[in-house]
Amino acid sequence: MNAAFVHESVMLAEIVDVFAEMNNGVFLDATLGGAGHSVALLRAHSALRLLGIDQDDVALAAAAAVLSQADCGGRATLRRARFDSLATVVAEEGIGSLAGALFDLGVSSPQFDVAERGFSYRFDAPLDMRMDRSQSFSADDVVNGYDADALARMLRLNADERFADRIAKAIVASRPIRSTSHLSDVVSSAIPAPARRRGGHPAKRTFQAIRIEVNSELSILPIALRDAIAALAPGARLAVLSYHSGEDRIVKSVMRTAETGDCTCPPNLPCGCSAVRTVKRVRVSREASKSEQLTNPRSTSARLRVVEKLPQEEMN
């Protein structure tokens, strides 16, 4: 196992339970990371096969080692790809439909912990934050290239940052900013002192917003979720773990649209707008257990949502 990529899977027991009745076939892990969820599911379903997608080459290499050590490597196909290309990957692999699909969104702990990746304000490093290191666009382009209005919009959209305008103006005034430490200092100084003393590190939301911008996380998510739902076999489930309100709003919206068919008819009347429902909601524990939150801090912000693909005859 790659010692640089040790990742504790969030809500592992809950995910295994969600897919307890999964049929044999191919399961899609659209955010493979350290492969913890996938290993648990392959062990629980001896005839299951895995299609694992991740855009991070380090994560893929680590996942391959983890799967091999768990004696699951022979049942796994791993592809380096962004999850909004999952429909293409599924088609290229000749998969007719999926037995299930999982998205564990956000950044893996090891990505935060490797200083040179530039994801964290805890280390002094270049402004990078690229999940796919082959892309050219990085945090440096955002921090030193966006104007104040664009920065403020990004901070509000990607992180609900209440001091977006102040932070954006401070960033522009402090250019060039070349390191994570410099950026952290600029952001912290732009936030009023009373606010700096509560709610964690004052630069946390800014770093989150920039990471999301660099990797187009919110813009590609609806595409990926819709394609995953379309690829599910009847009775198969899609589970999504999100970690902040922007992600969760998108997940909720896409799932609700699939659940209702975007029907516009009054709820007390039969549907007359030809809406097509494709999934039903599965009620699950939305949050990690208190005990897990104590042992795995990343789980405290996790939100789990699950839908199940309807049989063709129930789509109306």
From TrEMBL:
Give me any GO biological process, just one: rRNA base methylation
InterPro entries from the xrefs? RsmH, SAM-dep_MeTrfase_MraW_recog, SAM-dependent_MTases_sf
- Which Pfam families has this protein been placed in? Methyltransf_5
Q: Which GO terms describe its molecular function?
A: rRNA (cytosine-N4-)-methyltransferase activity
Keywords, A to Z, come to: Methyltransferase, S-adenosyl-L-methionine, Transferase
What would be one Gene Ontology cellular-component term for the protein?
cytoplasm
The similarity comment for this entry is: Belongs to the methyltransferase superfamily. RsmH family.
> What is the name of the protein in this document?
Unannotated protein
Source organism per UniProt: freshwater metagenome
